[in-house]
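> tool_call: predict_assembly(chains=two)
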Amino acid sequence: MLAIDRRGRRPGPDGDNHVASARVARCLGWTLLMLFLVTASTRSAAGAGSPDRGEGVGEETVAEFEKRNGRLFENWTPPAAVVAITGELDGYIEPCGCTGKENQKGGLSRRQNFLRALRQAGWPVVAVDLGSQVKRFGRQAEVKYQSIADGLRQMGYSGIGFGPADLRLPAEELVAAVAAVGNEPTPFLSANVGLLGLDANITPRVRVVEIGGLRIGITSVLGDSKAGGIRNDAIEIAPAAAALGEVAGLLEQGGCDHQVLLSWATPEETRSLAAAYPQFDIVVTAGGADEPPATLPDLPSGGRLVELGHKGMYAVAIGFFPGTAQPLRSQRVPLDARWGEARDMIELLASYQRQLESLGFDGLGLSAMRHPTGRRFAGSAACSDCHDYAYEVWEGSSHAFALTTLEEQDPRRDGDPECLSCHVVGWAPQRFEPFEGGFASLAKTPHLAHNGCENCHGPAAAHAAVERGDVRASLAERDRLREELVLTLDTPAGRERAVNNCLECHDLDNSPEFNFDDYWPSVDHSEDEEE
Amino acid sequence: MQFRLPNPWLVAGVAALAGGLTGMATAFVAAASTPLRTAAPVPTAAIEGPQPQIETTETTHRFGRVAVGGSGSYAFAIRNSGAAPLVLTKGATSCTCTVSDFADADAGDGSSLTVPPGQATSIRIEWKGKGGGGPFRQQATILTNDPRRPEIAFSIVGEVVPLWRAEPEAITLAGLSPASATDATATILTFGETVPELVSCRLAASKLEDAVAVAAEPLPPADLKQADGATGGFRVTLGLAAGLPLGKFGGELQTTFRIDGEEVLAAIPFEATVAGDLSLIGPAWDRRAEAVRLGSISRREGFTTKLFLTARGPNRDQVRPTVREVVPAGLGVEIGPPQPIGNGRLLRIEIELSVTPESPTANRLCTTAAEAGRIVLATGQSDTPELTIPVCVAIVE
């Protein structure tokens, strides 16, 4: 029998043996291909049910943070639905603080990975946010609010309230950020806050979401005690209790299984609203402690009171288990390094940074203010002529690379005034604004890059000019200029002044471990040290 | 015997389907059993033999109030009422502010402690009132070898009281009319041991220091009574004269006072925006470019968006806009009646922009090749009788 292979070719001189061995080889090849495909498909499909914790989060990290901050969702079975609650971001779009982020909590990127992990575990998720996306006001806060609103939409939020700081922004910025886009409804809502009036319907007053076989009604209010601080004719704010009375009917018509109230009010006000409207079984309040309670307190109405802490460091998940002995369970979720980075949120942050850079300091409305001393800056290099030992110590310290650390971030932060103010010379650290003659850019003021001598000792241009002989001054004037720049640790008052100076940047947010006595040796440049 | 090998696509398809189904089943089982893979397995083994048993009388301590920077500590009593040694190990603590420590720690790093049967010990938790004040809650977790209670959380709850607090924290006055004077107040509450003595009050770092009057006066006793725990305070008033220029300006309201032997500066950020009598607001309104940006719109799909014209100032009731001109002509413009917002100092007029299948195509995208379109309105208001709104839009098939 003459074998012809599948391509119509005749066998070679080895005849049947060759054909048999070729067939075996092909069979082996098909088997391997099949194995490969089965394995690849299995891994791919199984991966769809596994949490995406983001880049660089291994089991070791998870174990470490379970140890530090507790385990999550212990003994939870898949719930019918989960309400994931966040809020009080206060402008902290990244983990609270600048240094040692892995040890700090919060940030939009981790929040996205947390929500993604719930969804990838197959849990139906309704995400809601109490509000207060920003804390400050001004152009940077406006750009930040828009970026956060975009981020929350990307994360698939169903309900977002307004905090007092949000409502301090110009109405035109708020409308641009929160109004419906095309056919996509806006996730922002409020029972008693109406941008351009309650009847303008820029944002709805309630929303009912159907998920996991449950109907969940959501609304939000701004407490009366907070409404008084909002002075903007384009924003109508109704009394909270009356507004809830108006929307109660809408929620009832929605046939809700559960009702969520996002109350940006003091805990006392929120409790009072919850007592008046006991149909809300999940009541979220502002104004709690930095750390939310591990177990949700019960309200007299039978509902649960949710606190979120501050700066977006925590989320709270509430799972519904209808028909079980424990129909509602909650989990406080620290947004720690277990949740990794989400690429889409990193891109959002990069876009935010690009907008800041493109606006520049002028576009951000930052006008240089007069330094309290009235003096101007010389730059650290000017100090090196006489204070060579101190300069040498400074050069070897992290302070001398402060701006570089911002340039090396991903995305880079050297155009962000909130970062820059502690990484260059001549800015007010807590106001994020430059002093007259302070750092403007690397091109214009390279001598003021990094955190230099004058940030602690004060502006030294006049002192340096006199010492160099550029300006003539009397001996008394020379001594006065010298004296103005002296910081001493030898007196209680001097030490307090020095420590307070450090705390301007090494504050609770950015340097929670800061202790002057521990940190000082690494930058100690006192004269007796020189000897 | 000869056999034919199956079609490779068929093999691949069957293999992929089998793999996919297996994977989905695995995923479902994994998700159902270990959601988020963070759950620790619960010991299910039967409890046999002598066991330790932890007993506590309380797990939450309410310390009341502490000043910012002040500290405190509290010892929680623990007793082993079981029949085997109770081993306590330090678990997660919520913050460095809270430290759990053992009174009689085992040798070593002091992170564990063994309590013999029938004996008692204590867990001391220390806290420090850091931050800007407000409610305080910290927690320390202790792990135990009591099989009935493997973990126990001790909480410290209270309030950290700052030396002073401002309500509101910042003053922002948005959308002021240049024609009207206005004022704003803030309250500074102090929580020191002595009544504060006013040193000065000024608006700092503002471009318009001369146009803003600032005053501070001690809080009347009646107001002080309502402020929870405050021992003193001031009412600070900002008065803004009429005739301020358009734009944004701000600064810091700085009140200096002497309290408990030291001089303290309370700074309240301040910002005001003075706007023209007519303003546009809407998702399509580009405030910086001062144009409506609609982009490319398919006339087949159609499009509708809302723009709002707001009117403020003494002549706001005169505003009754009508359409004078629209370019491109295919852009529909409908104007609604004026509606007062809230207190009525501002009127809202809705302008609906639409593109329909009947709209002719046009390119007015505000580029060098396609100049901007426009909507021209007759406002009815004497100061600004006509308003031209630039529009960037292309109407395509």
